[in-house]
Amino acid sequence: MQTALAHNLCLAARPTAARVVGGRRVPALRSASTTRCQAATVLGRAAADDVVTIRFDSKGKPVVSVGGTSASAGTDEKAELAELANQFNIWNSALQTGDPEQVANLYADDGILLPTVSNQLRPDHAGKVDYFTSFLQLKPFGTIDDSFVRFLTPERDVGSNSGIYTFALVKEGKPVKVQARYSFIYRKIDGVWKITEHHSSAMPEPVAEPLDEVRGLFDIWNNALQTGDPEQVANLYADDGLLLPTVSNKIRPCHESKVDYFTSFLQLKPYGTIDERNVRFLNPAKTLAANSGIYTFNIVKEGKPASVQARYSFIYRKIGGAWKIVEHHSSAMPELPAAAPAAAAPAAAAKEPVAA
Questions:
Q1: CA neighbor of 301 nearest in space, from 266, 261, 260, 263
Q2: What 3-state DSSP class applies to 20?
Q3: For residues 241 and 327, is the Cβ–Cβ distance under 8 A?
Q4: How far apart are CA 180 and CA 208, in angstroms?
Q5: Would residue 351 count as lying in a domain?
Q6: For a tag on the chain, would you pick the N or C end, based on fewer CB atoms within 10 A?
Q7: CA angle (269 as vertex; 268, 270 as ends), nearest 5
Q8: Where is the Calcium/calmodulin-dependent protein kinase II association-domain domain (predicted)?
Q9: What string of DSSP letters covers 174-213?
């Protein structure tokens, strides 16, 4: 059968005339028997589902090669990568059982664990059980934020999953979330994936609290005022952002109208200071936030320094990963300052008696 296939795949037995292959002139073949020999030899090594390819080198000599079906190979590798990626879900499900033995059993006998919150290396089963006995008290549930899954050997029996995960925990009775970096190295042992290396580490850069980020948006706006550039200030507002300014009756709904307002306002050389504020998120996704309170502006009016206190509301929306002002309402303090107590009238001078 293979010989018949070889004959079918080979070129004609006799030399052929020069021909055009792939857009270029290829010399005549001098020996078809060589091609038959190559094809027969290769087919002797080929599996039933292998693809046999005949190509021509730069001299027109036929080269016969065997390769697995590319579509099938690609599909197999994707399925195996998905299986490798799923090992995290198996590990995470073991955490949900609350059983440290069940978690530790997912590691190879020589597996190493370098945990996030312990200085101790855990090279053996007992050490891993000890760590997970404590860790599971936090009721951890992991979610992968970013991952890279790949094989480390051509045989696809060693693979890695590295990235960033977040754990939802219960700490001191309160729900918290902790983000960390991870590396899982897996080895297939007797057909089963086992963890041979697990390194988990805290994020090395300090992460700002979300509300701190919102608080800092006022400083960004105030710093833009110091540039004296109305365009730079107006660019901090969303395209549909509204400005209701302190000293203008007009609502400013578009970029041009905001530039118009700040062109005048910046002539006062304003510098803002927050006296009182309340910062909070307005939706569960934390993409809408408010900063409301009282601020005081130091300004220069008619060549003289002055200060003006006002109430403010900034509403921010995260758009394309950046915070933008969607509503800014600023108003004068509605109550007049309490009048200072009147100074006591000076006592009338006693009249001296008129001499008779």
A1: 266
A2: strand
A3: yes
A4: 15
A5: no
A6: C
A7: 90
A8: 82-204, 213-334
A9: EEEEEEEEEEEEEEEETTEEEEEEEEEEE-SS----HHHH
Q: How many residues does the chain have?
A: 356
Phi–psi pair at 253, nearest 5 degrees: -90, -10
Beta bridge partners of 226: none
Residue ranges for the chain with pLDDT beneath 70: 1-74, 207-208, 338-356
Q: Which domain holds residue 242?
A: 210-332
Distance CA 165, CA 16 (A): 64
Q: What is the pTM of this model?
A: 0.47
> What secondary structure does DSSP assign to 121-151, as a single string?
-B-SHHHHHHHHHHHGGG--EEEEEEEEEEE
Q: Which pLDDT belongs to residue 37? A: 44
Contact between 225 and 266 under an 8 Å Cβ cutoff? The reply is yes
Residues 43 and 56 in one domain: yes
> Is residue 242 situated within a structural domain?
yes
β-sheet bridge partners, residue 139:
none
Using DSSP bridges, classify how beta strands 62-67 and 107-114 pair: parallel, antiparallel or unpaired. Answer: unpaired
Cα gap 80→74, rounded to integer Å: 10
Q: Does residue 290 contact residue 282 with C-beta atoms inside 8 Å?
A: yes
156 CB-side CA count, 13 A: 13
| Residue given tokens 């693809």 in the structure block | 51
Interval 3-40: pLDDT, tens: 443 333 433 334 444 444 444 444 444 433 444 444 44
Kind and range of the H or E run holding 221:
helix 210-226
Dihedrals phi, psi of 217, to nearest 5 degrees: -65, -30
Model confidence pLDDT, tens digit, residues 121-149: 999 999 999 999 999 999 999 999 999 99
Say how many domains are in the chain.
3
